């Protein structure tokens, strides 16, 4: 069963199309990373996902049910870490934990305390007085305390330093190992998410331009470089579905998306390297001016 | 536990494969002696900052291949006896990897001598316990 | 429900300081009598007044501040997502926060009042000098007002912070609703329909409360974390409901004021005319107000007449011309409050469907006396000590002269072309027996063209029941000292004819419509009705009504059919009955008890039904009105 199922999700703000017929599925127990540049539509998608916004068209199903209609009952099984930690500023972490404990079927208050202690976040300080990193950690602790079947994290590492970021991922991984929670995470931290995501989606100007297993994705992207003099080779690149071709000095640098070891454009001398997720992302969502020669 | 494995995102191989082969390498080198305790899925995932499912998959394959053994309640260990691989399978595997290596060499434009020389160096480094031979 | 309780508890806990503030304020009135510059009389009342003012003030301020912040500020600052990403239903969020705002508002008011209440009792409106007692309904009304304040503040907060174009709908909707509601309320109020007006006001107030509640709920559950969407659904819901209510109020007002004579319950006022038309006011039980009409009894044709409000009561000042062709009445200005000026309206009874004529004649207040000339062209009234005569068609004021003053209110009559007769009544007392009072009549004449008044005559009336003939030329009365029935000149009051009277003093002396004189008197265990010729010279008829009683002439149903009222000798009103006497045959018919003759052939029974006598069958037939429902 899919933990998340988006079907033709469309969101409009006046004339502007923020999301255009986005459909994706997140299988149970997997980790899905949604990438996109600023303004690509990630926030709108997450709002639709959580039933905060009604899409102009399409549906969002969480744990098999329409989230706009059955939001309150579905969210008992979902932990949410928002992009902007938005708890009431006057409440302390302890009060927040107590407040939430009345809303969820399961609540591990002791776990919250333990986690916060591990992070070094004081649980008696009003939320508004915590640093951004501490707020994020409180949000994560609260999200995990209800033993949710699904975790939705909206850019959880935004603005965090390296240490805080590592702490977030460690908690996440620990939770994954213990319970196999489904995770949906939107992020800019491509390096961090590269290792733990099973599936990745890329949102560009409201369209889902990629929705694939991480392994398969990385398997088919390569960078191929060869001397410029081999002009004719450029034509033969087409078979490998290039997404970005750039001329640099004496070299042609091509990022191809359908790499096939058997059909290289030149027989001798092409340099083939694999790409990190970040490089794939840039290649797919870079502005048109960056492409072509 | 000091990290003996590293994941290279730039590596063409999937992460689980990197882990699997890394463990195999360590066992073959003797860095992980027979009967030694290996990190739990959870711990290794946290150390490497990877999805536990990925680690789990690698461990599963290693267990299937007989490299690792799980003792319920105690943990995962390097198995006492290395797997006795069937001859035919062994040969097929050797040949597969050789073909792979050879095609890579051809792509890079190495000729036969260079290819064989490089292979020789690698083999020696493994069997001599040379730290330079660590593969990622 | 758990979610509701959690949100409620959280909102209240966050504002704990308010309780402290409220209690602190509550201590202020206790110290008030000792503050410098404050008088010492009645410290308890001072405390109560101060506590009440502080309590109401604090709760009003709290209502506005909390209402505007409890949701809309979180919405604008994007903090509502915290609630919406939890398993909290939209209604739980709305209800929890709203209930917290209400509880805090009311609680703070109570806390302010508490110390004073413990010391000197619960303060009520009396402490503020208002001469009314506070009923539980008043506290409920106050609570509803505070709740509406909270809801209005919330709606305002949402609308202002959303900064979307839907504000235009809000402004338009508010304007239209206000106009519809206020207009309906006002129209009902100034037509004397007080109860319907009150119902409209209450219903609209409750509708506003319900509308704001519903709109707020829809905004939270439908708009969720989107301020613009929230504003849109709030506006659509609110104005949809309120405009429907405004239209309903208009429809209701229209229905109330569309009362017809056939819907009348008990009839209260009747004004008869020489013709078949009457003026009538009665209570409409379904619509709960008192409409007035001019009705043509045989056909049922009617015209609505708005009554003047004279000291809170609806009064129809209707007059008919002698030729039965014209009717005039006074109506207050449309939309004017009570005590406003009254305008003269005239109707041509021969073509009543024609446009009624609103003359340019206004009376600042209800006139003491109002008469219509026999041809229906002029109207005269005694208004604020002046006699005013106006021409109806042009609205020209023909004369305005100070009226002579009398002990009793004067009456006017048109008595010939360009001539008005003014009758006044002074009280005379016998110096030998000051307790006994008698009337001293004053007769004046006014020349309209010359605008001059002169006294033409006067006379003493020991009997107290002098009657003028239908043509105003003669007066008939009984003189108990001389024991004669005397005829006097209608203008000078000088006697010119008389007839000696033997026996008990008559109970009534009247002119019949053709000038004959009727005298009723007790005799030999019964009552005699004696009819004389217009000059008293000849007795034309004598009829006897058996039974000891007091009898007098109430009205004339036909030339030889008299309606008499009969009362037991002990004067108890209960035994009063109406009798029909046929002069030609001498037969009498008991018409019934508790009937009030209205003139001509019309009677009003005790239940308020208007009955008409059919001379042929001598039966009373109901024509208008119904008995009040038990």
Report on this model:
The complex is a heterotrimer of chains A (293), B (136) and C (630). In chain A, 31% of the residues lie in helices and 30% in strands. Chain A has 293 residues and is of the alpha/beta class. Chain A folds into two domains: 215 residues, Rossmann fold (3-Layer(aba) Sandwich); 70 residues. In chain A, the strands form three sheets. Chain A has a six-stranded mixed beta sheet with strand order 6-7-8-3-9-10, sandwiched between helices. Chain A has a four-stranded antiparallel beta sheet with strand order 2-1-4-5, with helices on one face. Chain A has a four-stranded antiparallel beta sheet with strand order 12-13-11-14, with helices on both faces. In chain A, a hairpin with a 2-residue loop joins β1 and β2. In chain B, a hairpin with a 3-residue loop joins β2 and β3. Chain B starts with 14 loop residues before the first helix and ends in an 8-residue tail after the last helix. Chain B is globular. Chain B is mostly helical and 136 residues long. In chain C, α9 runs antiparallel to α10. Chain C has a domain of 162 residues. Chains in contact: A-B, A-C. The interface between A and B is medium-sized, with 34 and 21 residues.
Describe the protein's topology.
The complex is a heterotrimer of chains A (293), B (136) and C (630).
Chain A: E1 2-13, E2 16-27, E3 31-36, H1 42-49, E4 57-62, E5 65-66, H2 71-74, E6 78-81, H3 93-101, H4 109-119, H5 132-145, E7 150-154, H6 162-179, E8 182-186, H7 190-194, E9 199-204, E10 207-213, H8 214-220, E11 222-227, H9 231-237, E12 242-248, E13 251-256, E14 271-274, H10 277-285
Parallel strand pairs in A: 3-8, 3-9, 6-7, 7-8
Antiparallel strand pairs in A: 1-2, 1-4, 4-5, 9-10, 11-13, 11-14, 12-13
Helix pairs in contact in A: 4-5, 5-6
Chain B: H1 15-29, E1 37-38, H2 41-48, H3 52-64, E2 68-71, E3 75-78, H4 87-107, H5 112-128
Antiparallel strand pairs in B: 1-3, 2-3
Chain C: H1 2-14, H2 16-31, H3 43-69, H4 72-76, H5 81-84, H6 90-120, H7 136-162, H8 167-189, H9 194-223, H10 227-257, E1 267-272, E2 277-282, E3 292-296, E4 302-305, E5 308-310, E6 313-315, E7 318-320, E8 326-332, E9 342-348, E10 357-363, E11 369-372, E12 378-383, E13 386-391, E14 397-402, E15 408-414, E16 419-430, E17 433-447, E18 452-461, E19 467-468, E20 474-479, E21 484-489, E22 495-500, E23 508-511, E24 517-523, E25 526-532, E26 539-546, E27 550-558, E28 561-567, E29 577-582, E30 588-593, E31 595-599, E32 602-605, E33 610-614, E34 619-624
Antiparallel strand pairs in C: 1-2, 2-3, 3-4, 5-6, 7-8, 8-9, 9-10, 11-12, 12-13, 13-14, 15-16, 16-17, 17-18, 19-20, 20-21, 21-22, 23-24, 24-25, 25-26, 27-28, 28-29, 29-30, 31-32, 32-33, 33-34
């Amino acid at each position: 069963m899919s933990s998340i199922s988006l079907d033709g999700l469309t969101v409009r703000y006046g004339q502007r199309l923020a999301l255009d017929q986005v459909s994706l599925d997140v299988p149970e127990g997997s980790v899905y990373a949604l990438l996109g540049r600023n303004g690509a539509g990630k926030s709108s998608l997450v709002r639709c996902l959580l039933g905060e916004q009604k899409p102009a068209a399409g549906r969002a199903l969480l744990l098999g049910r329409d989230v706009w209609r059955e939001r309150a009952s579905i969210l008992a099984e979902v932990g949410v870490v928002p992009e902007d930690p938005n708890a009431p500023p006057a409440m302390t972490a302890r009060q927040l934990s107590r407040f939430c404990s009345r809303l969820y079927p399961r609540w591990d208050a002791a776990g919250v305390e333990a986690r916060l202690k591990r992070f070094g976040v004081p649980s008696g300080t009003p939320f508004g007085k915590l640093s951004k990193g501490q707020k994020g950690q409180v949000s994560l602790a609260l999200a995990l305390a209800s033993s949710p079947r699904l975790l939705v994290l909206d850019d959880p590492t935004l603005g965090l330093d390296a240490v805080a970021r590592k702490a977030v991922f460690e908690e996440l991984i620990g939770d994954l190992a213990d319970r196999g929670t489904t995770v949906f995470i939107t992020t800019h931290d491509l390096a961090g998410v590269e290792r733990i995501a099973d599936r990745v989606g890329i949102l560009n100007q409201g369209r889902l331009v990629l929705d694939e297993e991480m392994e398969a994705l990385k398997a088919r992207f390569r960078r191929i470089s060869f001397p410029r003099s081999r002009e004719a080779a450029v034509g033969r690149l087409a078979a490998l579905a290039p997404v970005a071709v750039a001329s640099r000095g004496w070299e042609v640098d091509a990022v191809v998306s359908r790499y096939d070891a058997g059909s290289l454009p030149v027989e001798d001398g092409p340099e083939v390297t694999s790409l990190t997720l970040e490089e794939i992302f840039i290649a797919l969502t870079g502005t048109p001016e960056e492409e072509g020669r | 536990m000091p990290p003996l494995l590293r994941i290279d995102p730039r590596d063409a191989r999937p992460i689980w494969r990197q882990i699997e082969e890394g463990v195999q390498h360590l066992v073959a080198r003797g860095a992980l002696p027979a009967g030694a305790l290996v990190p739990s899925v959870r711990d290794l995932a946290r150390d490497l900052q990877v999805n536990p499912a990925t680690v789990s998959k690698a461990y599963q394959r290693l267990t299937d291949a007989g490299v690792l053994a799980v003792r319920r309640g105690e943990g995962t260990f390097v198995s006492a006896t290395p797997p006795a691989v069937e001859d035919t399978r062994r040969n097929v595997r050797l040949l597969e990897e050789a073909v792979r290596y050879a095609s890579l060499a051809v792509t890079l434009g190495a000729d036969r001598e260079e290819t064989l020389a490089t292979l020789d160096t690698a083999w020696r480094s493994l069997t001599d316990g040379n730290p330079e031979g660590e593969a990622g | 429900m758990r979610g509701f309780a959690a949100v409620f508890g959280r909102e209240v806990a966050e504002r704990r300081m308010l309780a402290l503030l409220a209690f602190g304020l509550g201590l202020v009135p206790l110290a008030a009598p000792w503050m410098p510059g404050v008088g010492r009389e009645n410290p308890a009342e001072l405390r109560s007044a101060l506590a009440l003012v502080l309590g109401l003030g604090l709760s009003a301020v709290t209502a506005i501040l909390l209402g505007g912040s409890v949701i809309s500020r979180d919405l604008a600052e994007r903090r509502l997502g915290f609630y919406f990403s939890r398993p909290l239903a939209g209604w739980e969020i709305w209800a929890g926060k709203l209930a917290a705002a209400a509880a805090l508002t009311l609680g703070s008011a109570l806390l302010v009042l508490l110390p004073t209440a413990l010391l000197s009792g619960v303060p009520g409106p009396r402490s503020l000098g208002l001469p009314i007692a506070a009923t539980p309904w008043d506290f409920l009304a106050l609570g509803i007002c505070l709740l509406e304040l909270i809801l209005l503040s919330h709606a305002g907060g949402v609308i202002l912070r959303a900064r979307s174009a839907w504000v235009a709908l809000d402004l338009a909707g508010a304007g239209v609703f206000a106009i519809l509601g206020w207009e309906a309320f006002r129209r009902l109020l100034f037509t004397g329909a007080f109860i319907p007006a009150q119902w409209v006001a209450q219903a609209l107030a409750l509708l506003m409360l319900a509308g704001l509640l519903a709109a707020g709920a829809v905004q939270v559950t439908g708009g969720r974390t989107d301020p613009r969407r929230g504003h849109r659904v709030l506006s659509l819901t609110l104005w949809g409901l309120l405009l429907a209510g405004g239209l309903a109020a208009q429809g209701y007002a229209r229905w109330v004021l569309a009362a017809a004579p056939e819907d009348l319950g008990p009839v209260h006022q009747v004004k008869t005319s020489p013709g078949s038309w009457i003026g009538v006011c009665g209570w409409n039980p379904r619509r709960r107000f008192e409409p007035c009409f001019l009705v043509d009894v045989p056909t049922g044709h009617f015209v609505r007449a708005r009554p003047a409000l004279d000291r809170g009561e609806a009064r129809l000042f209707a007059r008919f011309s002698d030729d039965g062709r014209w009717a005039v009445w006074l109506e207050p200005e449309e939309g004017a409050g009570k005590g406003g000026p009254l305008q003269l309206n005239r109707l041509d009874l021969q073509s009543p469907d024609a446009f009624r004529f609103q003359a340019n004649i206004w009376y600042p207040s209800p006139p003491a006396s109002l008469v219509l000339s026999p041809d229906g062209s002029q109207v005269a009234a005694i208004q604020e000590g002046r006699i005013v005569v106006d021409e109806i068609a042009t609205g020209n004021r023909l004369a305005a002269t100070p009226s002579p003053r009398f002990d009793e209110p004067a009456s006017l009559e048109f008595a010939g072309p360009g001539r008005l007769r003014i009758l006044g009544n002074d009280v005379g007392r016998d110096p030998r027996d000051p307790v006994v009072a008698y009337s001293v009549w004053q007769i004046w004449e006014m020349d309209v063209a010359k605008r001059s008044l002169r006294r033409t005559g006067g006379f003493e009336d020991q009997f107290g029941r002098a009657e003028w003939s239908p043509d105003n030329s003669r007066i008939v009365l009984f003189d108990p000292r001389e024991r004669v029935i005397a005829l006097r000149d209608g203008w000078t009051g000088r006697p010119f004819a008389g007839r000696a009277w033997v026996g008990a003093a008559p109970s009534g002396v009247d002119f019949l419509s053709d000038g004959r004189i009727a005298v009723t008197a007790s005799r030999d265990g019964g009552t005699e009705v004696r009819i004389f010729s217009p000059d008293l010279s000849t007795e034309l008829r004598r009829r006897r009504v058996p039974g000891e009683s007091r009898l007098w002439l109430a009205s004339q149903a036909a030339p030889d059919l008299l309606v008499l009222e009969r009362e037991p000798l002990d004067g108890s009103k209960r035994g009063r009955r109406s009798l029909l006497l046929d002069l030609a045959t001498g037969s009498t018919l008991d018409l019934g008890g508790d009937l009030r003759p209205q003139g001509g052939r019309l009677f009003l029974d005790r239940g308020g039904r208007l009955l008409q006598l059919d001379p042929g069958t001598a039966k009373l037939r109901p024509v208008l009105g119904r008995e009040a429902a038990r």
